[in-house]
Amino acid sequence: MKKIVVTLIASAFIISCDSTKKVHKSEVKSTKIEKVKSAFFIDSLTVKKHLYTLASDEMEGRKTGTPGIEKAAIYIENEFTRIGLTTFNGLETYRQTFKFTPRNSKEDITAANIIGVLEGKSKKDEYVIISAHYDHLGNEGKGDDKIYNGANDDASGVTGVLALAEYFKKVGNERTIVFAAFTGEEMGLIGSTEFGKSIDASVFVAGINLEMIGKVPSFGPNTAWLTGFERSDFGKIIQKNLVGTGYQLYPDPYTNFNLFFRSDNASLARLGVPSHTFSTTPIDVDKDYHKASDEAETLNMTVITQTIQAVAKGTESIINGKDTPTRVVLEASKK
Ligand SMILES: [Zn+2]
To answer: For 96-149, what is each residue's pLDDT tens digit?
Structure first.
């Protein structure tokens, strides 16, 4: 991995007020406090540590079924332990282990989703899942650099899951939050499909999936886009919660890429859960997508940190049980 000097930019959410909207003074004040809270608990140093560890050459591209992904699994488990998460319904550890046969293979491989839980205070039987996939493409590239580090795809998302687990552990949550690092995404959403089989989807009120949140979006800084925006009112709730923060959420502008069905949110959306993916990457022009060049040094730490802070603030009313997004209904042809 090439070494370059990375400038650390203080993670404080820049306090700015959207002058185009009339916002009541007390609202501005509480919004400022909220921003300080998310900036205080979600800092760029921790974000950088998660990202650089998960995307390091030592993890050998985190291909499902390899020793490299095992190292990533252990890192995530240790972080879940440090943060103080509990295990998911019926599991004795953070691992949901299962076997499957990959496409074009005759041999079964053993894989594991890593799942941790923060039980809700007043609505513990209502669940929100925050997820990202920790697997990637492995270490069999053809050029000089053989390791597909998958820094943006999707070490950045897993970094978000870990940072949000730490954040909600500190600030508290009314609904139960399930934090999931899915395996086998690159092999066809295998881990999230397996997870979907193990749950009663009706108790999951929302799915927050993070995918490739490390590059400056085409809409400019302090923005992200959401897949399947029109499929539920989840995105509108997030937009409402972000008013006054200076951060904006847009509908996925790359609808011809069919991204709603290409990440783990789809496995729960197929079960009716309003489950969407946040991303910042200009996927139509991104030269590192599924390349060995998807390295930590190509990512913007400020974008990742501010996006995680925005997800914390944007999903707050859902986590606290004040808003419940409408269910996703898929037309039969797309199932
Ligand atoms: Zn991905």
So the answer is: 999 999 998 999 999 999 999 999 999 999 999 999 999 999 999 888 899 999
CA of 208 to the centre of ligand 1 (A): 14
The CA 157 to ligand 1 mean position distance, Å, reads 8
The predicted-structure confidence for 58-109, as pLDDT tens digits, reads as follows 999 999 999 999 999 999 999 999 999 999 998 999 999 999 999 989 999 9
d(CA 192, CA 207): 11
Architecture of domain 26-329: 3-Layer(aba) Sandwich (3.40)
What is the Å distance from ligand 1's center to 186 Cα?
A: 7
| CA 125–ligand 1 middle distance (angstroms) | 29
Q: Is this structure's pTM higher than 0.85?
A: yes
Q: What is the DSSP secondary-structure string of 114-129?
A: EEEEE--SSEEEEEEE
How far is the centre of ligand 1, averaged over its atoms, from the C-alpha of 37 (Å)? 29
